[in-house]
Write a structure and sequence with these properties.
Radius of gyration: 19 Å
Helix content: 25-40%
Shape: globular
Largest sheet: 4 strands, mixed
Number of helices: 9
Strand content: 5-15%
Order of helices and strands: EEHEHEEEHHHHHHH
Strand order of the largest sheet: 3-2-5-6
């Protein structure tokens, strides 16, 4: 999720187009891009509000990379320099020593295009941004970082299923992950209706698929489930009202609501979700479509913990692996952000 120079007021007034990730260096086991996988060398910067960053938060936790890859959490409310570290003492990231994520971007390249986005991985040794390639970061965490995975870590991108996973993820990205933004930031009726119709058309197809299988691909959690979950968990809280994706609520679709609850109650998913950050970011940063900055009181979040009964479909969340351990101190979601 990008932002800089207070471009937030423009949302809803100009055609929406998601920027490509300008920095796409990869951190790999063999270091072929000059950045080898190394415990303690890198810092993942995220916002709990951002669905793209939330993918990385979930993957990091499921894979047990907390000790190998530290994490900084930005304030959900941006100012004119975008993501800032005002949640930390003295307003500085305690590892990088910077007040704004933009400082790491500028150390890498002055006057870079595409704004300042999360997730971002910064090299602690020189303070430079390494990558903001949100599509690639989690795939590399699942594959290139395998030597540092915890014992019992799941295989989130199993090689025999990658073709099917990639195909599902491409459809989910186009119509759902990015589709809600195209609907929410549309500046014309036809543009909005086309995007909104595509969102619900894809959701209905996914519901048909998930009516008879617990997970999107195979019988375990994969990267495809993570990418769909980060949109579903925000759907009723922000996309239904704020982005006008309101043909129906997630809670009104029996299959998708049960699927989302199943994942939310799986260690590594719901324990990373901060509804307070999510709602305040969308409603108070996107001033072009919510100029009053009023954050709605609803929806009621208590249903996220209700029984889902998806275990009847079989499947094993972690395959032959095990659930992740407790959340590290300092990374817990505050009580106000929980259902």
């Amino acid at each position: 999720m990008a932002g800089r120079d207070d471009g937030n007021s423009a949302y809803g007034h100009k055609a929406f187009k998601r920027s490509r990730s300008h920095f796409a260096d990869r951190i790999t086991a063999d270091g072929r891009d000059g950045r080898p996988v190394e415990a303690g060398r890198y810092r993942l910067i995220v916002s709990r509000a951002c669905p793209w960053a939330s993918r990385a938060v979930i993957s990091r936790r499921l894979l047990g990379l907390e000790d190998a890859l530290s994490m900084g959490i930005a304030d959900p409310i941006q100012d004119d320099r975008s993501w800032r570290f005002t949640l930390d003492p003295d307003g500085r990231d305690p590892v990088l020593g910077i007040r704004f994520l933009a400082e790491a971007y500028d150390r890498r390249e002055k006057d870079h295009p595409g704004g300042v986005s999360v997730p971002a991985i910064v090299d602690v040794t020189d303070g430079e941004l390494v990558t903001n390639d949100y599509q690639r970061i989690t795939l590399d965490l699942a594959t290139e970082w395998s030597a540092l995975h915890r014992d019992g870590a799941p295989d989130l991108y199993p090689e025999p299923l990658r073709g099917e996973i990639d195909a599902i993820m491409a459809e989910v990205y186009e119509d759902v992950n990015n589709g809600v933004y195209r609907a929410g930031f549309a500046n014309g009726q036809a543009e909005y209706e086309e995007a909104c119709a595509a969102v619900f058309r894809r959701l209905e197809l996914l519901a048909s698929r998930l009516a008879w299988r617990r997970y999107l691909v195979g019988d375990t959690i994969t990267e495809a489930d993570i990418r769909l979950f980060t949109t579903l968990v925000r759907f009723d809280a922000v996309y239904h009202g704020h982005f006008k994706c309101n043909r129906w609520k997630l809670t009104e679709n029996e299959v998708l609501w049960a699927y989302a609850r199943d994942l939310f109650q799986t260690p590594g998913f719901g324990d990373t979700v901060d509804f307070d950050h999510i709602k305040r970011h969308y409603y108070q940063v996107h001033t072009g479509i919510n100029p009053t900055l009023i954050v709605p009181l609803g929806p009621d979040l208590s249903g996220w913990l209700s029984p889902h009964h998806r275990e009847r479909l079989g499947g094993r969340p972690f395959g032959d692996g095990t659930p992740p351990g407790p959340v590290l101190p300092g990374e817990e979601v505050p009580p106000r952000g929980r259902p």
